[in-house]
């Protein structure tokens, strides 16, 4: 059992915390691209204890800046997208996607001080069906071209959910193979819509799975071998990539896809890759 001090050390992700510095050194997913298409209104977000606003300027460029206007603290998610940036509704201060103040219409022309005002801002990129940000120090690295990010859109499934817990609790649940035997078991005769019924039936054993862990170049691979009440074995493989990213095979009733995710082979049920990602809000 962790002490309160130890727990805070590994779960707190605000600015200046050890955990925050670690997670900020990686690109973090914000929302799915489907949630924030071109023409969307500015979206307030809380990422690692920072209040931010995601927006697209009038050239459809993505920006992520501090939520509150540095003038009077107004919520910029209520602002207007116009003239190359996001304009505060209170006094009209205008900020571009890099957080630079480019207009102060309420100030006399000879007393404007736009060049002295800079809002917190972070680089943003749309990639693999998600919108990502890099909140770390220095130049942003490239987003790793994981296969589930580079696969054609018809062969990807991207979703976001909000969990009322810290980032480590969520990650523990997604990389824990033992709980699936109990939590995800369905009643006899019930089919799983998401898994075409197959996963649920195979996981209905009562014995704990045999677990093995392999360290790989991108993180950790976890193997869990379950005993099926149907007399067979069920092997589940989870891939733990960087600090908030985990992917695993996902069984769907759909045309089979080659390993490179490009072309159908048959109309049989097969496995494709699905990813589960999340950025801590605190």
Which keywords apply here?
282 residues; alpha+beta; Rieske Iron-sulfur Protein; 2 domains; 5-stranded antiparallel β-sheet; 4-stranded antiparallel β-sheet; 6 helices; 16 strands
Strands across the major sheet, in which order? 12-13-14-15-16
The rounded distance between the terminal residues' Cα atoms is 22 Å
DSSP strand (E) fraction?
25-35%
Number of domains in the coordinates? Answer: 2
- Biggest sheet statistics: 5 strands, antiparallel
**Global structural class:** alpha+beta
What is the level-2 CATH architecture name of the largest domain? 3-layer Sandwich
**How large is the count of helical segments?**
6
CATH class of the largest domain: Mainly Beta
Roughly what percent helix? 10-25%
Rounded to an integer in angstroms, the radius of gyration calculated over CA atoms is: 23 Å
CATH superfamily of the largest domain: Rieske [2Fe-2S] iron-sulphur domain
Order of helices and strands: HHEEEEEEEEEEEHHHHEEEEE
Task: Give the CA-based shape.
Answer: elongated
Mean pLDDT: 81
User: Total number of β-strand segments?
Assistant: 16
Oligomerization:
single chain
Concise synopsis of the structure shown:
By secondary structure, this protein is of the alpha+beta class. The protein is built from six helices and 16 strands.
């Amino acid at each position: 059992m962790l002490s309160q001090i130890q727990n805070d050390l590994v779960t707190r992700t605000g600015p200046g915390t050890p955990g925050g510095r670690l997670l900020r050194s990686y690109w973090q997913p914000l929302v799915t691209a489907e949630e924030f298409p071109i023409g969307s209104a500015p979206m307030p977000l809380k990422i690692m204890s920072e209040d931010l606003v995601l927006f697209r300027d009038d050239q459809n460029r993505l920006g992520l800046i501090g939520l509150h206007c540095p003038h009077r603290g107004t919520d910029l998610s209520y602002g207007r997208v116009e003239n190359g940036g996001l304009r505060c509704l209170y006094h009209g201060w205008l900020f571009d996607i890099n957080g630079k103040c480019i207009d102060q219409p309420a100030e006399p022309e000879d007393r404007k001080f736009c060049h002295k005002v800079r809002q917190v801002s972070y680089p943003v990129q749309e990639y693999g069906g998600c919108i990502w940000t890099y909140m770390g120090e220095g130049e942003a690295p490239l987003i790793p071209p994981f296969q589930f990010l580079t696969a054609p859109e018809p062969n990807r499934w991207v979703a976001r959910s909000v969990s009322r817990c810290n980032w480590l609790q969520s990650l523990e649940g997604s990389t824990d193979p033992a709980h699936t035997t109990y939590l995800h078991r369905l009643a006899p005769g019930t089919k799983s819509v998401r898994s075409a019924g197959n996963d649920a039936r195979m996981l209905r054993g009562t014995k704990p799975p045999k677990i093995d862990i392999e360290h790989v170049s991108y993180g950790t691979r976890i193997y869990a071998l379950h005993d099926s009440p149907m007399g067979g074995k069920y092997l589940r493989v989870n891939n733990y990539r960087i600090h908030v990213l985990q992917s695993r095979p996902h069984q769907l009733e759909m045309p089979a896809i080659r390993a490179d995710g490009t072309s159908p082979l048959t109309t049989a049920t097969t496995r494709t890759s699905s990813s589960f990602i999340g950025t801590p809000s605190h």
